[in-house]
Design a protein that fits this description.
40% of the residues lie in helices and 15% in strands. With 280 residues, it is of the alpha/beta class. The chain has one domain: Alpha-Beta Barrel (TIM Barrel), CATH 3.20.20. An eight-stranded parallel sheet has the order 3-4-5-6-7-8-9-10. Helix 2 (57-71) crosses helix 3 (91-105). The longest helix is centred in the first third of the chain and has 15 residues, at 57-71.
Length: 280
């Protein structure tokens, strides 16, 4: 169990990935973004997650450079993730998209590169490109995002290298139990996007009650629940006090009863698209 912000889980290829990081979905290019990344690094975050479609890789790269300089750490101490967008899927176009992301971030390599969605008829060729990048040492780990069990089975059947990560929508109203069990069985680490359900859970009475017991916010309760369930998590925030608060979850532990109460909120509710009906 993660004891601090820099604690890591070991992926099936031996690469260590922080349990906790910063997501930057819907954060536009500009000073606010640069500052959020820099602030997160300053407060001990070592994992930053972006994607080509967020159109903010340049700002993320700048925040990384400024953060590294300010804190006096090396690039190697950070874990940087990006993702190939649906329109760029396919073998050659994925290789090109990767280079574009790398150039925008101004990095020599990525720590993790993901297929953003399972685009039918394309994700296998896209995966071959990720395997090529991995073998060439341009990325330390490769994985997928928004893959259901049937997508994973289909991919693993033909893949030379198994995905190391599956990043999916995961929060108390979408607990993804079967998917997590399958990933565990396959040695694929589950990672949560939108862990706070885009803020929609923050007034939930059950979660508030649990939070009051530990003198913690609802956000902190949810993020702690992620970690205790063995799920890597990357909450998004641009405000310094939230960035600090989100990460302040290593000084309490939810009981089995708390976890069961949180699990009981599951009603298969998605805030994002259904991975089986991706038409973008």
């Amino acid at each position: 169990m993660a004891k601090n912000l820099q604690d890591t889980t070991t992926l099936h290829n031996g690469v260590k990935m922080p349990w906790f990081g910063l997501g930057v979905f819907k954060v536009e290019e500009g000073p606010e973004l640069v500052n959020a990344v820099k602030t997160a690094i300053k407060h001990g975050y070592r994992s930053i997650d972006t994607a080509a479609i967020y159109r903010n890789e340049e700002g993320v790269g700048q925040g990384i450079r400024e953060g590294i300089k300010e804190v006096g750490i090396s690039r190697e101490e950070l874990f940087i993730t990006s993702k190939v967008w649906n329109a760029d899927q396919g073998y050659e176009s994925t290789l090109a998209a990767f280079e574009t992301s790398l150039n925008k971030l101004r990095l020599d390599y990525l720590d993790l590169y993901l297929i953003h969605w399972a685009v039918e008829g394309k994700y296998k060729d896209t995966w071959k490109a990720l395997e090529t990048l991995y073998k060439a040492g341009k990325v330390r780990a490769i994985g997928v995002s928004n893959f259901q069990i049937h997508h994973l089975k289909d991919l693993i059947q033909e893949a030379e290298i198994k995905p190391m990560i599956n990043q999916v929508e995961y929060h108390p109203r979408l607990t993804q139990k079967e998917l997590q069990a399958f990933c565990r069985e396959q040695g694929v680490q589950l990672e949560a996007w939108s862990p706070l359900m885009q803020g929609q859970l923050l007034n939930n009475a059950t979660l508030q009650k649990i939070g009051n017991k530990y003198n913690k916010s609802v956000a902190q309760v949810i993020l702690r629940w992620d970690l205790q369930n063995g799920v890597v998590t990357i909450p998004k925030s641009t405000k310094e006090h939230r960035i600090i608060e989100n990460a302040n979850i290593f000084d309490f532990e939810l009981t089995k009863e708390d976890i069961e109460q949180i699990n009981s909120l599951h009603d298969n509710h998605r805030v994002g698209p259904d991975p089986d009906n991706v038409d973008f």
